Amino acid sequence: MDFYTIDFETANSLMTSACSIGIVGVKNNKKIFSKHYYINPKQPFDPFNITIHHIDEAMVEDALTFLELWDTIKEYFTNTVVFAHNSMFDFNVLNSLLEYYNIDKPTFKFGCTVKLARKLWTDELTNYRLNTVASYLE
Length: 138
Fold this sequence. Notes:
There is one protein chain. It contains 6 helices and 5 strands; from the N terminus they run βββαααβαβαα. By secondary structure, the chain is an alpha/beta fold. It has a 5-stranded mixed β-sheet with strand order 3-2-1-4-5. The chain starts with a strand and ends with a helix.
């Protein structure tokens, strides 16, 4: 199966404040790339968010905005399959950014790896955090 995984980080509680995105591509069940982009949200950072992801204003001051980055990453969201861990957050960020910047929403299938893990490994895992699931799958 070919798919992408994504993970957004936000500068504050607003879904339009993405300050980072990680993308991993998988083809024939093998990781083919891993990319990380800082995003300048042009919004203030909340100290609470910084304690979670350790990204601050200085790290994104020269980064592209999401609108500027979109042409580089849109291929990963065009007629593809995309997963995220706790996907409601990541896809809410993506949808909010697309609406904020008036970008046409691409067509792709998506899934949540938390939901998959809960269905697949009910007895094997003590919790469904990303690091626990990743460790279990090696």
